[in-house]
Amino acid sequence: MEVTMDPLFLAWSYFRRRKLQQCSDICTKILQDNPYDQAAWSLKTRALTEMVYIDEIEVDQEGIAEMMLDESSIAQVARPGTSLRLPGTCHGGGPTPAVRPMTQSGRPITGFVRPSTQSGRPGTMEQAIKTPRTASTARPVTASSGRFIRLGTASMLTNPEGPFINLSRLNLAKYSQKPNLSRTLFEYIFHHENDVKNALDLAAQATEHAQFKDWWWKVQLGKCYYRLGLYREAEKQFRSALNHQEMVDTYLYLAKVYQRMDQPITALSLFKQGLDHFPGEVTLLTGIARIHEEMNNISSATEYYKDVLKQDNTHVEAIACIGSNHFYTDQPEIALRFYRRLLQMGVYNCQLYNNLGLCCFYAQQYDMTLSSFERALALVANDEEQADVWYNIGHVAVGIGDLTLAYQCFKLTLAFNNDHAEAYNNLAVLELRKGHIEQLGDLQSSYSAAQKSEDAFPEHVDTQQLLKQLRQHFAVL
């Protein structure tokens, strides 16, 4: 006689091995035979939640509504070094745009793509509309819920017959009194259904049933308030949760609230308070380094990234950011060691080989430069990456004096990404060297462009010299 495994045990085994769809299918068959099997119901709920789970700590996208219609700010003009919206005011030894590329908001390009590192906070509504809000599209995110929008509900996608749980018929008060089921149900409503209102109601009733002593439910209340934009209420819940139980995640959630309210100094002190309770915690050290980096305090950020590597020497973000800092401080040989370390760890993508090619070129290891760029071209995933690789090859061609190759590379860059401003600028310089000047003597346009350049980068020497020459010419006239 053939002995078969118990279906529920098999579903649990699939769940532990992250085979979530098989787990859900088996639970569905169990529930068809016995609709009141709480174990199968709970396991299927957890499997469906894990399919669309979003890490609330890491993933965050700020839309135009949150940036331009923010009413949580106390002062319109913050003191120097106390705001993430005015990173250029920090006197922490940040690099100039002549050495390190800057985003449109004035922050240096980081070595690791994170939320809000692509463009930063715009200063005006016009700038907000023009600024790309994500790495893949120039369209701005209009609200904080933009990244949660899916084609149809997640329930419809995973269950063709309709939603697994009909939330409108659910008695939340009954489930809030069952500690195990209520937590599973909350995770399903919050992550799978993206129904913050019902999740908030369930969390509030469960907190009341626990006599306001359960730290976990207070954290969930804080997450709901944060997603609704009620940052002060979220702060109260996270603070209360910390009074009941010291947890690393709670510190991270609370620091995220302070960063959204543009209080980086408070967030830094909170991270350091968390390090007192959890010495050497990598996520807290990384949070401190990120804030210093966003405030242009690159030297302090690098020190904290080094502390991160002392605790976890395989931390990809720390290695990439330290390597990027060494590259922009004219130490390409040291940067090359960090990027090679990433390669040894199994990081295998277009961006890494692109960086390796640049480091090899500036470290005068020309035999490895073109092979790295060839590998980068073989690993491109979209047209934007292809454009960046060709732009860097063109930059190398300018460095070795092959202007014909450089011209072709910059043309290819624009073929893949016609919004690549640096390629347009370099093509204009090459055309100028060839003597292809279409307009002569347009001094007024030159003066206007030079003034805009001075506003963007006041310390640029070439701009200052050009303005001086133009003013002398106007004085003679």
Order of helices and strands: HHHHHHHHHHHHHHHHHHHHHHHH
Secondary structure category = mainly alpha
Which overall shape is indicated by the principal axes computed on the Cα atoms? Answer: elongated
Round the Cα radius of gyration to an integer and report it: 27 Å
For the largest beta-sheet, the strand count, sense and barrel status come to: none
Q: What is the helix content?
A: 55-70%
Overall residue-averaged pLDDT value:
82
The end-to-end distance, rounded to whole angstroms, is: 106 Å
Strand content: under 5%
**How many β strands by DSSP?**
0
Taking pLDDT < 50 over at least 5 consecutive residues as the criterion, the unreliable ranges are 133-158
Instruction: Tally the helices.
Output: 24
Description:
Residues 133-142 have a biased composition (Polar residues). InterPro entries: BBS8 (IPR028796), TPR-like_helical_dom_sf (IPR011990), TPR_rpt (IPR019734). Pfam families: TPR_8. One of its GO terms (biological process) is non-motile cilium assembly. The chain is mainly α. Among the domains are: 7-51, no CATH class; 439-477, no CATH class. The chain is built from 24 helices and no strands. The protein is elongated, with a radius of gyration of 27 Å. Residues 133-158 have low confidence and may be disordered.
Compact summary:
The chain has 477 residues and is mainly α.
